[in-house]
Amino acid sequence: MLKVNNVTKYYGDFKAVDNLSFEVKKGEIFGLLGVNGAGKTTTFRMIMNLIEPTSGTITFNGKKIDYNLTDKIGFLTEERSLLTKLTVKEQMLFYGALKSLDEKTILSRLDELLTRFGIQEYKERKINTLSKGNQQKVQFISAIINEPSLLILDEPFSGLDPINIELFKSVILDLKKKGTSIIFSSHRMDHVEFFCEKLLILVKGKSVFEGYLKDIKRDYKIKNIIIEGDVRQADLKKIDGVIKVVKTARFYHVSIKDESYCKNVFEYLKTRNNITRFTLEEPSLEEIFVSKVGEAYGK
Considering the entire predicted model, what is its pTM? Predict the structure, then answer.
């Protein structure tokens, strides 16, 4: 289990991370979210023992993270960190050696992973000749070649088409099944909702919201009603409890203050014809994220 306990990090007078605490259990996917500059990258670097916290502690399975433990950590960075003039094989031999793996183990795992990702024919190709998507595959392989116990994924689907996103998803879920603890960070809230049981939102280095996703969505009072049919947007906006109404190509998306106001919308719809859909839904994680970050910034 990863445990981040009351961690603060200063760069000079600038506080990049402010008294941050969270835990990631074995086989759990934990979402660490925030806008750019929120402190996520600094947190990742402290977990990797690349920089020391100013105060607080970070432990993995009860031990302070040092070079012995980092051999069991994988990190897929948002930025490309590949040596592009090397071949894929040379890159993996280099990264694997940094993780204390012998050449035979590296090459065996590499062949297996290249096949899994459908790029076995690129083994002897230089990385700078590969497409952006295939470079992302190589970068992901480099993060898991050591079969990590803890894996940090920062925007893992960058540059991928929908088919390859599904491939990455299946690999990530397989790692979870094997007991890998995963920290998942993305600006795509639908991906976070797909993977994460728990999450934490950072603003200016400080946690402003955290908990289990199911509890967060249940406790967030604003709900959404999806309507398809003969209605008038202006009329919907006048209903007591309605916060906003957005019209898309097929539907009206009506946000209400809480579930109790649903009956007001329903009473209006009883006066209309050809209502083919009326669905009460939980808010999306994206809506909650925007709301909580906006509150933290005083907006």
Answer: 0.86
